[in-house]
């Protein structure tokens, strides 16, 4: 329970802002895209080495998350906003498929995407806290509270690990 108690009201507010930006991106992506048929197949189901797939998925996910949280923090949240908005647009475009393909998209998203999207929103909330760094530097009052607490990274990291495991090992059964 100590991990959850380390989230402050500001953290929850910034997470809500990041979720709103993602939803806005989904709406924009859905409205600007044209309906199309999904022809891509899930390549993870055809591979023989699930551990190499898991490694690839986790390496990709954690590199994106490093951009969203750490580099987003350094850029005062601007990079975080751009990445989560772009991901929202891509999700919206994907949801605007022909009716035959909607179930295939939803199966994929329900299987692991919920955890991955929630982790992205939480990491974006961390990136948005970057304004405090520059605010404190401007006031010459840099303190230990300026940097994000390590506990803020635990829950989204666990969600991302869980999503990677589901994507690597279970997605072909959905």
Task: Please explain how this structure is put together.
This protein has helices spanning 2-5, 9-32, 50-74, 78-95, 99-128, 130-139, 151-169. It is mainly α. The chain has one domain. The radius of gyration is 18 Å and the shape is globular. 30% of the residues are buried.
Main sheet summary: none
Structural class: mainly alpha
How many individual helices?
A: 7
Terminal residue distance:
33 Å
Our Rg estimate from Cα atoms comes to: 18 Å
Strand/helix succession = HHHHHHH
Shape by Cα distribution: globular
Write the layout of secondary structure elements.
Blueprint: H1 2-5, H2 9-32, H3 50-74, H4 78-95, H5 99-128, H6 130-139, H7 151-169
Descriptive labels:
174 residues; mainly alpha; 7 helices; 0% strand; globular
In short:
The protein is mainly α. It is built from seven helices and no strands.
């Amino acid at each position: 329970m100590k991990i959850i108690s380390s989230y402050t009201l500001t953290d929850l507010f910034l997470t809500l802002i990041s979720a709103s930006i993602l939803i806005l991106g989904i709406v924009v992506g859905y409205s600007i895209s044209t309906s199309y048929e999904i022809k891509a197949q899930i390549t993870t189901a055809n591979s023989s080495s699930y551990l190499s797939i898991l490694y690839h998925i986790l390496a990709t996910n954690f590199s994106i998350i490093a951009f969203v949280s750490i580099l987003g923090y350094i850029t005062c949240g601007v990079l975080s906003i751009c990445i989560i908005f772009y991901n929202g647009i891509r999700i919206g475009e994907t949801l605007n498929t022909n009716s035959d393909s909607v179930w295939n998209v939803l199966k994929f998203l329900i299987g692991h995407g919920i955890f991955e999207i929630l982790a992205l929103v939480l990491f974006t909330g961390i990136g948005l806290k970057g304004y405090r760094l520059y605010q404190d530097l401007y006031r010459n009052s840099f303190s230990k509270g300026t940097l994000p607490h390590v506990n803020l990274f635990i829950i989204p990291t666990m969600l991302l690990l869980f999503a990677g495991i589901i994507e690597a090992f279970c997605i072909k059964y959905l």
